[in-house]
Write a sequence for this structure.
């Protein structure tokens, strides 16, 4: 059947910012879909507020709207673009929910837009738990006993009927926000009320607990002729009770016989038919009772999901691309399988390897949050590893996590590695009984301590098959250790085939990593590379997608042409996310344009960089020295790019350099120079720039002396952590003493770094590209939050909105001078602070930064692509980029924070980065661009209503003009007693409201009653904790927009004022770029 | 224990026996299914073959008496990447290694099965010798060259039923009838009377027939047409079986004499016998189809079925008389013939395995179609 010719223009809704449960995978799926539809000759309209995505690159879709993903914005886009169809299934839950909203409010009908890929009714049937229950019953599938409650009374009654423990699942939420397991009526009160609030339709389902059952997922695709294929089966290592996004998973399923697998396959197909998913991909989750095989359906997603991305990478089957083609009328048998080139997509991939996915958590960023895994997802990223055995894949996956581990323990980092065991049996039992981010390592410690598999099974519910695999790794660990480095024949090879890294073997034998590496080299023991080919070698594969293993035959097809290797960023985490993948993908695009072979190395299955057609070759491998060097030895690339993938490849640059690898672009020593305090100081002196006064201390006494010399407030941090972790602003000796004592006790060998904190300074971020001679500024961004908030968490605006031209020129000149001094070839990012007219350099990073994609979207300049070309020897003059582009429009970047996932965490911003993603607002003036960025970030800015203002004393003067502005645009101002009298003394009319501690009704009551529409609350965290914390959490919970800094409040005021002037409009990036 | 697998072309693969010492030989083929090893091991169509699984981890869920496709392990040897002795499944009654040992069949692992598979894909299925005694690649390869080739061998004789038997309540039951005539059927039972000619039938085919309302009498592969006619069945089923269809003249003869007599349904070897009986030719595929993910298109509906397959030979569609025969199914991977029916006779047949076991149930409707055909012909 041919594709549909009744539609010509298709709207795709993206997933918006990276949040927990919605990460890069929807950039991957959206990009594939846009490309697939364009390939078919359709005109593609895209809306996505996330500037760090490849899909929002102006050449991916025809009309790219970087606008808030709201029904209102989508309606404006539809009105303007008049698409024939809307494809709602590729933008995650956000895309799906927004599509449902515009379908239900009549917009699609009004403009004659057809929904393709999934019918509205099918979406409802899958998402509405009550209808889903009935649908499953009608096809004789069992689901857990359950009941639907829309109020607490009903919830209590249902729980009493079903019994405890009971699962609480809110309807229509992301990743099960607000869900959890209630073990008793008290838990139920908390969870069910949170769930009702979190649900878009104020509904929770209470469900029979199947905790401890085995969990499976099937990725299913169906076309309009009712052809159905299962792309992949996935088995969760962690049993039911842990969100599948937080579970270690393996593909294909390991412990199902064919009989049981086929029952599951039949059920998935029946479910797709019953729900009415006419075309595209869906994901169906099952739970299986380990004792009798009883199977129940957990849920299904009628759209491309996180698991689809994983399944695509695990099998080579491009689910999103094929879903897009099915949506426009193709059938599976009409779509070629790109990997083999000779077969079609209507088949089920056969794997001849084992895939393990491991989530990456960042509990360390949220000290108040409990490290506990539940049915609500907490992880921010994931890594995938491929091996010929489960053991190999697991160990590769664990060393890909970027948490300093080298495999399944055995690397000296666990309690049991110390001479005197510090863990008792009961300690270990406790660590096993509750699922946490670290449980996997305690599983090893349990086995090392001699705990039997049966006992571990009792505690964890993890299937004995997996436990036996762990036990086999531990057995091997014992053999390696016992050998002392005198390996029996074949032992070293077997250890490598079990996934042991040289580091682990070096640790276990006491010989060290380098020694083992040399030993292997002299024996010629190195990995081979095998192909991911969808068909288990039944057909020749056309696409070179490789993984390493220790076996006989090497399939790497090494070319003799010029080639460059790009090291990716590994798993997403806070501080290193999609922005770096964006840069790596651009490096690949640039190399393609230059006719140079591109070789991508990465371990993150969510990304565009690990798509099989992004680079000429893909190595799905851990980004460790050992693994990367093996690829270098095989491919012998002409150069390696380390400056685009964030901290992960940068950490490898010196070891790779030492091994003789040609690192192109800025020399790793220059990168190091910018990171080292003394070198940095010397460099600044040389070019006549200054940094805030600073010092280091190795004792509490020294710290106090230094702090007094520098002058409070100061920013302190231990020198051993990167990325703003454990940074703090301290205001006096007392705080300093407490902080230093803790830091020095924790890590006595490292000094504490102390910097002057420039209060109320304006922070500026600059991205530039240099070819070694010429440096061109890509963009200068002024932060909206004052210094002290991590740049990744701060909103920023391009071009600067409050700086004088002279200051801007000074910044540009300083940037150029440092680029020259550091011999930058490629990208460079500088952070400045301006206080009292003086320019301070806070940080220089001669590499890709988090803001590169934002700058590129704002200016239309593909910075990362230019930088890549410069790194392979082209000059900026050759490339025609010698002048900074000054856009006429205003672009605002806003950070998106995961506080709603961490119920006990304060929402204040500080020097430690906490955001997971970002959005962009573009318009012709600041207020409107800022308003769009807020709406895109989920802050529902009110046009009128009541604003509650409560600020710490030091902010009182500064908040006055803000309060006045809100009063002027018609807001009622509410304040607590102290602030009210201050306002009234200054002529601002104000209503008094009780502090929480002053008796009820108080401000939190007013928030709950929705009498307050905007909250402005500043504080430092500790001091104002009592009231401020409760106010901020209440605002978050009831989705009331809030500002925790004066700068943010001021910007919100301007944004709200702009909203009042005239309604917001929409425009595509292509239009903005044309007029720049 | 160390073992060596040597191919007739001289390529050898070091491996480890997980079933103790032994020697065996046969044609080596690969199967791409990720589950279903016990069904594969007991499938009579694998008679005389060393089977390698492309999925590397095998043994995970143990074995169970419920998942057998014949009364013994049929493969000559089982070749895998990593044997899993620690199985986990609520139905498991024992480990794969013990099961193979009990049946006297060798299992080897720690072999680069992907390299072996690639080699077969490129060079074709070939003879091999596996040994724990002789670890010398050249001598073992020479021994591989000495065993008979698959082409021209009658392997059916080793797997066909010795005596007629009924298939009842999911299991074989002895047929105690003194003579084979209409009296063998259960008169109280209205179920279709089906004669299944056994060339190595898989139990699940019989289970599927029974589920679709048939009473089944399984007859040895050498049964002649007159014997079948004396039974006055409602339909005739031609089973799957191992090896080359070419030397099975006796079976082709029987089939030719039954054309048009009663509805006929053939699976796998059955299609090859029907093809020959209708004047067509069969040929050896380079490395065959062995797996559970083969896409087959039903030309009447356009629908694609994901099918279970296990065959090394196929009917050449070009050699069939298009006036007599209508092609109903083709393989979307290589466009080979997967099914046909006859324009006059009540007869249809497929190359793939609608009974699955292992594999998807997409084509299970064919058993219903056979029942319908018998109903229409009654």
């Amino acid at each position: 059947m041919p594709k549909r010719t009744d539609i010509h223009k298709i709207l795709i809704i993206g997933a918006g910012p990276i949040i927990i449960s919605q990460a890069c995978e929807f950039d991957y799926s959206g990009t594939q879909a846009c490309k697939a539809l364009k390939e078919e000759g359709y005109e593609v309209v895209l809306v996505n507020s996330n500037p760090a995505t490849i899909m929002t690159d102006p050449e991916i879709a025809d009309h790219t709207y970087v606008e808030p993903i709201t029904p209102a914005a989508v309606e404006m886009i539809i009105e303007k673009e008049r698409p024939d169809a809307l494809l709602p299934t590729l933008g995650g839950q956000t895309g799906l929910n927004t599509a449902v909203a515009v379908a239900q409010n009549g917009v699609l009908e009004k403009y004659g837009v057809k929904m393709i890929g999934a019918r509205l009714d099918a979406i409802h049937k899958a998402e509405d738990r009550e209808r889903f229950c009935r649908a499953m019953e009608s096809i004789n599938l069992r689901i857990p006993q359950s009941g639907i409650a829309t109020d607490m009374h009903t919830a209590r009654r249902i729980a009493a009927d079903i019994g405890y423990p009971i699962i609480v699942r809110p309807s229509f939420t992301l990743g099960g926000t607000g869900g959890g397991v209630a073990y008793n009526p008290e838990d139920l009160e908390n969870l069910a009320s949170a769930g009702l609030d979190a649900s878009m339709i104020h509904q929770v389902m209470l469900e029979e607990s199947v905790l401890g059952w085995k969990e499976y997922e099937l990725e299913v695709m169906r076309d309009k002729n009712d052809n159905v294929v299962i792309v992949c089966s996935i088995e969760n290592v962690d049993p039911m009770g842990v969100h599948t996004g937080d579970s270690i998973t393996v593909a294909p399923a390991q412990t199902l016989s064919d009989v049981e697998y086929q029952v599951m396959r039949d059920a998935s197909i029946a479910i797709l038919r019953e729900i009415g998913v006419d075309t595209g991909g869906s994901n169906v989750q099952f739970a299986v009772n380990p004792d009798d095989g009883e199977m129940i359906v957990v849920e299904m997603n009628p759209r491309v999901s996180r698991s689809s991305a994983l399944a695509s990478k695990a099998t080579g089957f491009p689910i999103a691309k094929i879903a897009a083609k099915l949506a426009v009328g193709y059938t599976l048998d009409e779509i070629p399988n790109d990997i083999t080139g000779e077969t079609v997509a209507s088949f089920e991939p056969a794997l001849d390897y084992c895939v393990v996915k491991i989530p990456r958590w960042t509990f360390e960023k949220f000290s108040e949050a409990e490290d506990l895994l539940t049915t609500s997802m907490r992880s921010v990223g994931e890594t995938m590893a491929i091996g010929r055995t489960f053991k190999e894949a697991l160990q590769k996956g664990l060393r890909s996590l970027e948490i300093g581990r080298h495999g399944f323990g055995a690397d000296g980092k666990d309690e049991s590695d110390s001479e005197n065991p510090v863990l008792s049996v009961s300690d270990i039992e406790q660590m096993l009984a509750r699922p946490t981010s670290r449980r996997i390592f305690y599983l090893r410690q349990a086995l090392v301590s001699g705990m039997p598999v049966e006992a571990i099974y009792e505690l964890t519910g993890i299937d004995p098959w997996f436990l036996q695999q762990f036990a086999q790794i531990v057995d091997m660990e014992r053999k390696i250790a016992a050998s002392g480095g005198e390996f029996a024949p074949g032992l070293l090879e077997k250890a490598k085939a079990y996934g042991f890294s040289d580091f682990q073997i070096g640790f276990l034998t006491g010989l060290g990593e380098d020694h083992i590496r040399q030993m292997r080299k002299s024996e010629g023991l190195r990995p081979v590379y095998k192909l991911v080919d969808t068909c288990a070698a039944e057909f020749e594969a056309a696409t070179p997608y490789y993984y390493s293993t220790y076996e006989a035959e090497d399939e790497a097809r090494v070319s003799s042409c010029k080639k460059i290797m790009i090291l990716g960023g590994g798993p997403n985490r806070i501080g290193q996310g999609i922005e770096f993948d964006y840069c790596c993908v651009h490096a690949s695009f640039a190399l393609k344009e230059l006719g140079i072979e591109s070789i991508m190395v990465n371990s993150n299955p969510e990304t565009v960089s690990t798509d099989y057609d992004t680079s000429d070759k893909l190595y799905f491998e851990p980004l460790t020295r050992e693994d990367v060097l093996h690829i270098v030895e095989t491919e012998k690339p002409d150069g390696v790019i380390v400056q685009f993938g964030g901290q992960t490849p940068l950490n490898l640059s010196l070891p790779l350099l030492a091994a003789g690898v040609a690192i192109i672009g800025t020399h790793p020593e220059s990168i190091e120079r910018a990171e080292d305090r003394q070198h940095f100081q010397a460099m600044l002196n040389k070019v006549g720039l200054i940094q805030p006064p600073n010092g280091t201390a190795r004792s509490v006494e020294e710290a106090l002396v230094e702090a007094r010399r520098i002058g409070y407030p100061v920013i302190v941090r231990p020198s051993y952590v990167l990325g703003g972790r454990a940074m703090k602003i301290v205001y006096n000796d007392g705080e300093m003493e407490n902080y230093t004592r803790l830091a020095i006790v924790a890590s006595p060998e490292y000094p504490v770094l102390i910097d002057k904190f420039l209060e109320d300074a304006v922070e500026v971020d600059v991205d530039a590209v240099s070819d070694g001679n010429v440096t061109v500024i890509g963009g200068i961004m002024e932060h909206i939050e004052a210094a002290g908030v991590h740049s990744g968490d701060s909103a920023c605006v391009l071009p600067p909105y409050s700086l004088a031209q002279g200051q801007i020129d000074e910044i540009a000149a300083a940037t150029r001078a440092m680029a020259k001094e550091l011999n930058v070839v490629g990208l460079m990012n500088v952070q400045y602070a301006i206080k009292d007219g003086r320019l301070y350099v806070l940080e220089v990073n001669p590499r890709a930064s988090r803001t590169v994609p934002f700058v590129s979207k704002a200016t239309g300049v593909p910075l990362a692509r230019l930088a890549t070309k410069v790194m392979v020897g082209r000059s900026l003059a050759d490339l025609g980029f010698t002048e900074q582009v000054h856009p006429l429009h205003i672009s605002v970047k806003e950070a998106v924070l995961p506080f709603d996932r961490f119920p006990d965490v304060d929402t204040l911003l500080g020097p430690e980065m906490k955001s997971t993603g970002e959005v962009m607002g573009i318009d012709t003036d600041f207020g409107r661009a800022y308003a769009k960025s807020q709406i895109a970030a989920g802050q529902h800015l009110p046009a009128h209503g009541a604003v509650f203002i409560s600020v710490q004393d030091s902010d009182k003067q500064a908040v006055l003009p803000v309060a006045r502005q809100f009063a002027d645009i018609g807001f009622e101002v509410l304040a607590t007693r102290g602030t009210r009298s201050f306002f009234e003394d200054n002529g601002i009319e104000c209503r008094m409201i009780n502090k929480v501690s002053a008796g009820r009704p108080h401000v939190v009551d007013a928030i709950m009653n929705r009498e307050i529409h905007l909250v402005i609350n500043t504080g430092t965290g500790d001091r104002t904790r009592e009231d401020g914390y409760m106010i901020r959490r209440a605002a978050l919970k009831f989705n009331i927009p809030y500002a925790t800094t004066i700068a943010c409040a001021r910007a919100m005021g301007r944004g709200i004022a702009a909203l009042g002037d005239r309604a917001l409009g929409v425009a595509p990036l292509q239009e903005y770029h044309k007029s720049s | 224990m160390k073992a060596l697998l040597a191919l007739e072309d001289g390529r050898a693969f070091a491996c480890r026996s997980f079933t103790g010492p032994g020697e065996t030989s046969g044609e080596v083929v690969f199967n791409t299914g990720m589950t279903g090893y016990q069904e594969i091991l007991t499938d009579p169509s694998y008679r005389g073959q060393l089977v390698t699984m492309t999925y590397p981890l095998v043994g995970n869920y143990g074995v169970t008496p419920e998942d057998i496709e014949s009364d013994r392990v049929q493969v000559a040897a089982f070749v895998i990447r990593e044997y899993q002795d620690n199985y986990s499944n609520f139905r498991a009654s024992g480990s794969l290694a013990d099961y193979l040992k009990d049946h006297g069949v060798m299992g080897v692992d720690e072999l680069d099965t992907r390299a072996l598979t690639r080699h077969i894909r490129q060079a074709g299925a070939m003879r091999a010798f596996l040994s724990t005694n002789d670890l010398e690649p050249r001598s073992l390869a020479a021994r591989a060259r000495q065993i008979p080739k698959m082409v021209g061998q009658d392997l059916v004789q080793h797997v066909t039923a010795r005596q007629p038997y009924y298939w009842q309540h999911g299991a074989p039951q002895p047929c105690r009838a003194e003579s084979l005539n209409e009296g063998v059927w259960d008169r109280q039972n209205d179920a279709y009377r089906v004669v299944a000619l056994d060339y190595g039938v898989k139990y699940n085919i019989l289970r599927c027939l029974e589920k679709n309302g048939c009473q089944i009498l399984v007859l040895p592969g050498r049964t002649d047409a007159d014997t079948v006619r004396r039974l006055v069945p409602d339909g005739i089923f031609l089973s799957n079986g191992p090896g080359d269809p070419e030397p099975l003249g006796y079976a082709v003869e029987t089939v030719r004499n039954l054309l048009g007599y009663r509805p006929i349904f053939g699976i796998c070897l059955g299609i090859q016998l029907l093809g020959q009986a209708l004047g067509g030719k069969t040929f050896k595929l380079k490395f065959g189809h062995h797996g559970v993910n083969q896409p087959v298109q039903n030309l009447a509906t356009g629908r694609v079925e994901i099918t279970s397959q296990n065959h090394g030979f196929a009917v050449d569609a070009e050699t069939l008389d298009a006036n007599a025969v209508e092609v109903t199914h083709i393989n979307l991977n290589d466009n080979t013939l997967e099914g046909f029916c006859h324009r006059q006779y009540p007869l249809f047949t497929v190359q793939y395995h609608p009974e699955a076991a292992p594999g998807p149930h997409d084509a299970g409707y064919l058993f219903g179609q056979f029942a319908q055909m018998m109903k229409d012909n009654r």
Remarks:
- The longest strand of chain A covers residues 825-835.
